[in-house]
Amino acid sequence: MDVNCLKSTEVEYEIKIRGVTPSGDLDFKRKTLRGLLTQERGNRSFFTIVNPLVFSEDEKDARESLADLKQAINEVVVPVAASARKRICSRLTHLSGRIHRLNAENVDQRGIVVALTEELLILEADFEEKVKPPTSTPHDQQAFQFGMGDPQLSPISPRRSTTTVKPILPYKWGLSFTGSNSQESVISFLEKVESLRVSRGVSKQDLFTSAGDLFKAQAWTWYNINRSRFTDWDDLVQKLRQDFLPYNYDDDLLEEINHRTQGHDEKSALFICAMEGLYNRLSKKPDEQTIVNRIRRNLLPQYVAQLALHEINTISELTRLTKKLEESSSWSTRYKPPSSRKSQLLEPDLSFYPSTSFKSSLRNISTISTNCWNCLKPGHNYQSCRFPRRMFCYGCGARNTIKSKCKNCSKNFNTDGKPLDLVVSTSKDPAPSSFKKTNDASKIKGKSKQSQ
Questions:
Q1: Of 9, 45, 204, 212, which is the most buried if we count CB atoms within 10 A?
Q2: CB proximity list for 391: less than 8 A, separation 6 or greater
Q3: Which domain of life is it from (predicted)?
Q4: CA-CA distances (angstroms) from residue 132 to 127, 168, 199, 409?
Q5: What is the C-alpha separation between 45 and 70, in angstroms, rounded?
Q6: Average pLDDT of 2-15?
């Protein structure tokens, strides 16, 4: 509501309901009202809005303003100038609040309030139709451009039917704000409202009129007490942020951003979007390079290492590179060793021939996974694993053993996984056990000869 657009009687009314007696000429009264509105926006006002006027005289002035507005809207020339639109919108805002604050004490007076409200709504609709530019198809514009007159009669560009989308008002959205930051922050709520407002064809004026449908619990109490102080939707949004945002919001949010890291099962694109959304909620957003550097540091460790040699300046470039890394990681998890069963192959002469030196490793390759050996999850190795460390072989990843006792990696086992101290030698030299038996037999034979 622009104070300069109001008439003298309207300015006096706005001053009276704020507990101040109007005095001086019109310019002085407008300065007084402007100061009162500035105090209200900054939460520095100690005046409570109360209508001191009796119903009869207040209704008379409201009807005069309504009749004057009807005449002004009828005289508006299309296209509407910005100054005329601003003046009429300010007066409509004033009249809407005035009718809402009429001191109706009985059924008849309440009926008058309802009738005045209906007249005002029709007037709002008439003005909206004049302000809204006419919709026309490109064919229509081309027909008029070349002087073809009515496009409906033009054989070249027949008139296309245009349909006006009916706006879906907030009471059908299923969206509300309770004022509890534990459920949803006020910034998140306002982002959803703006998105739905655009997609469902609702103007800011209609949204301001229907704002009561968007609040519940303590937020509804706040709105109900302060709604007469709001001039338009943008003013309501500003006061909502001031009263419901936590203290030191930017500092706490920046600390939250610094500690927001990518989850093990979280896709990189979704993580980057979440980080960018957090930065968008700051009152002063940093430059893109600063945002990119922070997101890079908070990615999964394996992505941070692989992106170290890349110079990344934009968020879109960072998203593209992380998607490539995820794709390569997905390929590695699907790796399978080549088949050694030649009888099942169509072209056995081109199959893989394992060398004798690593037949034992090929024998156990099925037990080795590309997943982390510690937590058995893909996407990282055991050196960067954040889960508690378990027992496994650091050579092949076998569970519940260590490398010195592993059948696949320890030198104390042969190629078949058997301990060397149990392997019987196949060489021509006698084994230690046979030496022992021979020595024992010779001793016995020697003793028998001595006895003889």
A1: 45
A2: 399, 400, 401, 402
A3: Eukaryota
A4: 9, 18, 17, 79
A5: 34
A6: 76
